[in-house]
């Protein structure tokens, strides 16, 4: 299990990560881009905040770090979005079609399992 640390998340995330480690019985690997302290550091060093292709901080602090990790450690990936982030989640699907094909297969299996447990 891995978590991309942007340096700009809510301070309670550290406690929540520890809770998750206890729930899962597994250590969560913290991934961080060593070039940047936080989202504003990305902006200050690149002079780019956000544009038509999204926010530079997301690319530098989440996507690149995640892809480097995936390159050597890929089994199952779960991405979290807030309930009202529909557009962001849809963009992720469009930009990561290969990952989404695996996701849809797993989602179908999970839905079948949930339905089976509900009716049994």
UniProtKB/TrEMBL annotation:
Classification via InterPro entries: Rossmann-like_a/b/a_fold
Protein name: Uncharacterized protein
Organism: viral metagenome
């Amino acid at each position: 299990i891995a978590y991309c640390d942007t340096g700009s998340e809510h301070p309670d995330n550290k406690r929540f990560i520890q809770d998750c480690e206890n729930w899962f019985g597994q250590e969560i690997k913290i991934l961080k881009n060593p070039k940047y302290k936080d989202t504003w550091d990305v902006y200050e060093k690149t002079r780019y905040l956000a544009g038509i292709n999204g926010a530079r901080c997301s690319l530098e602090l989440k996507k690149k770090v995640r892809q480097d990790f995936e390159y050597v450690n890929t089994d199952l990936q779960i991405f979290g979005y807030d309930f009202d982030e529909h557009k962001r989640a849809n963009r992720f699907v469009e930009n990561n079609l290969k990952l989404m094909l695996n996701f849809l297969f797993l989602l179908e299996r999970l839905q079948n399992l949930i339905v089976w447990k509900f009716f049994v």
